[in-house]
Amino acid sequence: MNEFPSLLLQIITGLFHLIIFPGGIFALFVGLYFKGIDRKIEARLQRRVGPPLSQPFYDFAKLCTKETIIPATANPTVFFIAPIIGLTGMAVCAALLPIPGAYNGMEYMGDMLVFFYLLPLPAIALMIAGSASSSPFGAIGFSREMSIMLAYEVPLLIIILAVAMKVGGDGTAEFSLARVIEYQKDNGSFGLSLSLFPAFLAYLAFLPGTMGVAPFDIPEAETEILEGPLLEYSGPALGFFSLTSALKMFVVLGFGIVMFFPGTISDSIVINILWFCLKTLALMLIVITLVKSATGRFRIEQALSFYLKVPTLLALLSLFLVWCGI
């Protein structure tokens, strides 16, 4: 009987983290606002006025008022399930993501391997959407998404292993994000470490690919396959995909900050949250906004060659340096 109040408290706490902070409302607000900032800065770089920062909120609200039209030849069940899969996966990731100095993550669940398993879900959702829509453009997008996902997941796994071995020491691996933050608090940021700086560069290369932005927006290339897997989507179903993208923006940027630059500047929880958001924003502007504004689109074979060479070799270099005890 004494265990019931404790279990109930854990359930309530878990729901709070999933629905309110750091997942749910907080992650969606930050992610959508980051999307707005991204579009605004990109427009300014291209000498355009650009939309207001709150435009992603307006876009989602407008989509919710529209009808979701299902193609006659599509599988309606899978067609509706696809966006929910990606959104659910990113919502769980956002709830598990630690915010240094403010939130330590969920005990026994904040594991880097959990993120490795969940981060591909939006890409998998796009592949399911492309196959369920019965559109030939969706099928092409499915094929491209699968190919590029397999390419950028390889360096990500090696990056995670290098970080885990650095924290574990003596040939062991420690995958707990809370332990990763604690280790860097005592020994300095991994992003400034000789052994893990190549892994940090590899993670920077991973970001545009996993977010599906130029030069790696090949699965949804508007000028070639008309948004590919998302061509037949409209209304709230398409809105769920936009929410998934916003949540993923927050998660992948925050995951990189936690792994390489989790330092805090104050004992105040509010200031540490703002500092975390500022670091993720800076990472977005440098690695996503500037890169996609300055580059064209790769061909699929160019993207595959890039990920299987540059980030993978950088990650392997870090893994070797960590194994050597550097």
UniProtKB/TrEMBL annotation:
It is found in: Membrane. It is a multi-pass membrane protein. The keyword S-adenosyl-L-methionine does not apply. GO terms for cellular component: plasma membrane. It holds the Pfam family NADHdh. Keywords: Membrane, Transmembrane, Transmembrane helix. The chain crosses the membrane at residues 6-34, 78-100, 112-129, 150-169, 189-216, 237-261, 273-291, 303-323. It comes from the Bacteria. InterPro entries: ComplexI_Subunit1, NADH_UbQ_OxRdtase_su1/FPO, NADH_UbQ_OxRdtase_su1_CS. The keyword Ligase does not apply. This is Membrane bound hydrogenase subunit mbhM. It comes from Desulfovibrio litoralis DSM 11393.
